Amino acid sequence: MSATDLLRQSAAELGEAVSTGETTAVEAATAYLDRIAEVEGDVHAYLHLDRETALAQARGVDERIAAGEELGPLAGVPVAHKDVFTTVDMPTTAGSRILADWQSPYDATVTVRLRQAGMVILGKTNMDEFAMGSSTENSAFGATRNPWDLDRIPGGSSGGSSAAVAAYEAPLATGTDTGGSIRQPAAVCGLVGAKPTYGGSSRYGLIAFASSLDTPGPIARNVLDAALLHEAFSGHDPRDSTSVDAPVPPVVEAARRADVAGLRVGVVRELGGEGYQPGVQQRFQESVELLESLGAKVVEVSCPSFDAALAAYYLIAPSECSSNLARFDAMRYGLRVGDDGSRGAEEVMSLTRAEGFGPEVKRRIILGTYALSSGYYDAYYGSAQQVRTLVKRDFDAAFENVDVLVSPTTPTTAFAIGERTGDPMAMYLADLCTIPTNLAGNAALSVPCGLAPEDGLPVGLQIMAPALADDYIGLKAQGRL
Ligand code: GLN
Q1: Would you say 430 and 208 are in contact if contact means Cβ atoms under 8 Å apart?
Q2: Where are the alpha helices (DSSP H) in 167-298?
Q3: Separation of 335 CA from ligand 1 center, angstroms?
Q4: Which element (helix H / strand E) includes 464?
């Protein structure tokens, strides 16, 4: 098979071709590494690339296949891995200077499962520092560009992953979604991104941002590929205390079946209308009509508390991050500044954190510390938790009458690099539609639904399902939209 043919195959096809001996893991990895060498200068999707480590993994996979080992449908398929998952053979930075060149002594569970599945990790992808952001501009190591238009953002925080898949620098990528960081980058890069049910994929070895929200998930070019990756790394993990001890919903089977006839679809009134880009609204409307023409029953649904979800998220997520990031104290991990024998530990900690964290991370640590401080706790963190409960209740009430809820994934298409860096509120609004799902712990998926007429850029359709109904989304959405 030619290199171009290899790159054009879906992950499912590529896995099949490796299993039948039509190609090898080494050939597939080589094609992708060559493609990376060609376009990476423009895109900057990766933070760490090491051709030899990738090829050594590929040779190992080919040997395991030759020895008759049963590796599953993605054996030999390359994958781009978000730099928030620990890896023993590559650095892990979470996009932060405070972890520059840090080498983990252990693999994250997601990493372990990619390796067990015989997947070849091409490199680690760029991201907003500690996954805080919607554009990948908060990376300490420079921005990633959107392959559809190099002057625009690829979304964030998993923007390196989405750009890598969109630029054919990987057939698949991992991401994490705390408030939208898989679905939003997938949407603005014309890809499929799934946020599994909270606890459906392991957080062990995932550098924590907001532990009650963080969820690893797949980014791919079609629903079946996303489902295959989802299945490959998800499932119960005794090392994560919030891991769901239940079988992975049959997402692959659902993706292969694809049927929307009789599906009850709720259009969320609060997620649309004023403030949404006209072309986004138009493509969303057409998707809803398409669903209807395929036999789905569409009704409008109101979820009034969703209007307060963004505000609640920006108290809960910073509160959790202020606690999680306390571990970066210059004593145990990564960077240490000013340790010249003349200063005490506290001063070294302070100098290190001042230099090691970027402005957005500092903003959130300050905000979170404030929201959790005595005297303010009830007013801020406590109220936000109450809103969280209301959001969950709105979902539960809606799912009594409909099977899934739909909305645009993002209010606008990819914005220009630099456009929102000076305006944190504008940046936060990119996750307006995705955040409610995280607060409720439910499952959601973004699928491409065309290009906005005014700028020719991809639009995403978000499909939200109840917790542990990840397969329901795939079952109904694949192949029809
Ligand atoms: N953009 C949101 C934030 O900045 C969500 C990030 C994420 O899902 N990791 O917090």
Answers
A1: no
A2: 183-188, 223-233, 251-257, 278-293
A3: 24
A4: strand 458-465
User: What pLDDT score does 472 carry?
Assistant: 74
Q: Is the CB of 129 under 6 A from ligand 1?
A: no
Q: Which atom of ligand 1 is nearest to the CA of 177?
A: 8
**∠437-207-182 over CA atoms, to 5°?**
35
Helix residue ranges per DSSP H, 97-221: 109-116, 159-166, 183-188
- Residue 267 near residue 286, CB atoms below 8 Å: no
Q: Is residue 134 in contact with ligand 1, taking CB distance under 6 Å?
A: yes
Q: Which atom of ligand 1 is nearest to the CA of 209?
A: 9
* pLDDT block averages, 10 residues each, the chain of length 481: 96 98 98 98 98 98 97 98 98 98 97 98 98 98 98 98 98 98 98 98 98 98 97 98 96 87 94 95 98 94 98 98 97 94 97 98 98 94 98 97 96 98 96 98 97 98 95 54 34
CA-closest candidate to residue 415, choices 177, 186, 154: 154
Measured in Å, residue 370 CA sits from the centre of ligand 1 at 19
Summarised one tens digit per residue, pLDDT across range 334-361 is 999 999 999 999 999 999 999 999 999 9
- Give the nearest ligand 1 atom to 176 CA: 9
Token output for 399: 């799912």
Q: Is 131 in the pocket of ligand 1 (CB under 6 A)?
A: yes
| Cα–Cα distance for residue pair 45/189, rounded to 1 Å | 12
**How much is the pLDDT for 225?**
98
The set of residues, in sequence order, having a beta carbon less than 8 Å from that of 285 and lying 6+ positions away, is none
Structure tokens at 217: 């998930």
From the list 281, 276, 298, 277, the residue with the least C-alpha distance to 289 is 298
Query: pTM score, two decimals?
Result: 0.97
Going from the Cα of 135 to the center of ligand 1, the distance in angstroms, rounded, reads 10
In the numeric block, the tokens 């990493």 are attached to 111
Distance CA 301, CA 286 (A): 18
Give yes or no for residue 291 CB within 6 A of ligand 1: no
DSSP letter for each residue of 23-69: S-HHHHHHHHHHHHHHHHHHH--EEEE-HHHHHHHHHHHHHHHHTT-
Exposure string of 138-167, with b = 16+ CB inside 10 Å and e = fewer, is bbbbebbbbbbbeebbbbbbbbbbbbbbbb
pLDDT in tens, 184-217: 999 999 999 999 999 999 999 999 999 999 999 9
**Known catalytic residues?**
82, 157, 181
Report residue 288 as tokens: 């809803």
pLDDT for the residue 478: 40
Does ligand 1 have an atom closer than 6 angstroms to the CB of 86? no
Spell out the residues 6+ positions from residue 258 whose beta carbon is closer than 8 angstroms to its own. 223, 474, 475, 476, 477, 478, 479, 480
